[in-house]
């Protein structure tokens, strides 16, 4: 990170030298207390010199104080999109007083979402035995890569860095494989379930959530869901919980009659009816985690029921990309072939 920073006590000459050494086209002026003051590019230096500034003078005379930044917990998806459109890659992440927290590298990223995530990975995978006799289902290989790793990499692709993984059955293997998450560009914490807690019960045990929105997903899914669009829909609809839903079509082989009493008013010849099923991926406002009992078995459907009963807004997000729940041997075989053709 120091390669992108220069003290405000430095000279223009030192800024020129730092830019020459940096792999970025921009460096940032910082005070000793980590306060960011401005940015400097080659263009800023050139304009300063043409304006009569000497190389020995302070960098504060040439810095741009209107620099691009991301304020933690106070930015929009539209702002991130505008930065990507401008092809900006290195963006400082600051608090509300402009104190530097870190840098965000948008190069190769689809977005930077203000979301924490919980991946549910504690199940035994009994339907996939004997494959899961000695290996937890999330670590089963799909084209030489563990199932769960596809999900971790995709979360990282959308800038979701703070991950929690709930573990139980053979959970130590997941800890040994991923560790702190450094090698995958994320921060991983582990929630160890002493007893089965259902499909969302582990969320009550998470203590390190930094954002107001949390994403919960099953670890055994293979999907290329657009997390940015999922989140944008959640925000736009001012929802309390959003459920990624999977279209399930039922073809009726007969004409379906619409009646009033015994009188036929109309009919549809062999219609196809589309239902939407739960896809095992959720967005939830952090404030509702308190509704989940600690240390008790609690499913996502239980939380849905409670939120709806209390008048909160629960919405469905139709997933338009690829989705496969790897629960059975046929699903596992399908995943081996499908993954060769999915655009992640």
Automatic annotation (TrEMBL):
It comes from Reichenbachiella carrageenanivorans. Keywords: CBS domain. CDD domains: NTP_transferase_like_2 (cd06426). Residues 1-55 form the CBS domain. This is Nucleotidyltransferase family protein. It comes from the Bacteria. It holds the Pfam family NTP_transferase.
């Amino acid at each position: 990170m120091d390669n992108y920073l220069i003290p405000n006590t430095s000279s223009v000459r030192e800024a020129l030298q730092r830019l020459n050494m940096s792999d970025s086209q921009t460096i940032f002026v910082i005070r000793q207390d980590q306060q960011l003051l401005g940015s400097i590019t080659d263009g800023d230096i050139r304009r300063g010199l043409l304006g009569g500034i000497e190389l020995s003078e302070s960098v504060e005379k040439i810095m741009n104080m209107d620099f691009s930044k991301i304020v933690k917990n106070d930015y929009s998806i539209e702002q991130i999109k505008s930065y990507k459109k401008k092809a900006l890659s290195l963006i400082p992440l600051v608090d509300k007083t402009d104190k530097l927290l870190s840098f965000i590298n948008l190069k190769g990223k689809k977005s930077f979402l203000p979301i924490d995530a919980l991946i549910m990975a504690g199940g035994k995978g009994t339907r996939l035995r004997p494959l899961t006799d000695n290996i937890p289902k999330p670590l089963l290989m799909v084209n030489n890569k563990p199932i769960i790793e596809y999900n971790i990499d995709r979360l990282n692709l959308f800038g979701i860095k703070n991950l929690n993984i709930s573990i139980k059955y053979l959970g130590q293997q997941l800890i040994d494989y991923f560790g702190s998450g450094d090698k995958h560009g994320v921060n991983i914490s582990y929630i160890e379930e002493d007893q089965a807690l259902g499909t969302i019960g582990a969320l009550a045990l998470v203590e390190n959530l930094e954002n107001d929105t949390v994403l919960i997903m099953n670890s055994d899914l293979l999907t290329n869901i657009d997390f940015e669009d999922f989140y944008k829909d959640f925000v736009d609809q001012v929802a309390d919980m959003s459920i990624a839903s999977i279209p399930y079509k039922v073809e009726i082989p007969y004409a379906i009659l619409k009646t009033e009493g015994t009188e036929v008013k109309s009919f549809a010849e062999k219609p196809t009816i589309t239902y939407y099923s739960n896809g095992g991926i959720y967005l939830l406002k952090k404030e509702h985690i308190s509704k989940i009992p600690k240390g008790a078995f609690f499913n996502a459907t239980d939380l849905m029921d409670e939120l709806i009963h209390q008048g909160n807004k629960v919405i469905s997000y139709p997933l338009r990309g690829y989705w496969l729940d790897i629960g059975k041997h046929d699903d596992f075989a399908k995943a081996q072939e499908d993954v060769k053709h999915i655009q992640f």
